[in-house]
Design brief:
single chain, alpha+beta, Aminopeptidase, 7-stranded mixed sheet, 5 helices, 36% strand, globular, binds coenzyme A
Length: 161
């Protein structure tokens, strides 16, 4: 099992995982062109968990150019939730985010109803920073309540690094 930077050949698998039935209640869909653009955007990092040539999950981080000290976990998804793939990707994502000396905070938005993801983030030291009622929209256009979470460098460094 390897975690590596994504490449063009991974895009179909990334899209397949992102569009897993049921995940649409948690996040929207990027177009294929958007996924491709993330690969070369200096502001982004796209990681995949590769198990014998099968992509088992992916993570998208943003803010490496324009984040002003904050890196955002913009997407995290496992092909099969509950087997630890998301945790492995999150470990890598945190390491990459805080490898930038300027990073003070790693943050994310999550649907309030996504109790599994919230449990995983809280287990990793992310703290609830605020709520955005109707702060997002589902694919069908319905309002989604959002929870904002942040992990500060001091917390990561002393408790989770
Ligand atoms: C969120 C996600 C990335 C986490 O990765 P994962 O590989 O499933 O994580 P793990 O297997 O390490 O851990 C899952 C944890 O959730 C817990 N869990 C499962 N269902 C749960 C629920 N409904 N409510 C609360 N916790 C739940 C499990 O008990 C486990 O916790 P534990 O090991 O402390 O007991 C993955 O579940 C996923 O891809 N989900 C769908 C997409 C998504 O929601 N992405 C996040 C968007 S912000």
């Amino acid at each position: 099992m390897t975690i590596r930077a994504a490449n063009e050949a991974d895009i179909p698998a990334i899209i397949e995982i992102e569009r897993t039935p049921g995940f649409e209640q948690f996040f929207g869909w990027f177009s294929e062109d958007e996924h491709r653009a993330h690969l070369t955007d200096p502001d982004c990092r796209v990681l995949v968990l590769d198990e014998g040539g099968i992509v088992e999950g992916f993570a998208l981080l943003r803010g490496f150019v324009g984040g002003e000290g904050s890196i955002r976990l913009n997407r995290l998804a496992a092909r099969t939730p509950g087997k630890g793939a998301g945790q492995q990707l999150l470990d890598h994502a945190k390491a990459i985010a805080f490898a930038e000396p300027a990073t003070q905070r790693f943050w994310l938005r999550v649907a309030e109803t996504n109790s599994r993801a919230r449990h995983v983030y809280e287990r990793n030291g992310f703290v609830l920073e605020g709520r955005l009622p109707a702060g997002g929209k589902s694919i069908s256009g319905q309002p989604v309540d959002i929870a904002l979470y942040g992990l500060l460098r001091e917390v990561w460094q002393f408790e989770f690094a």
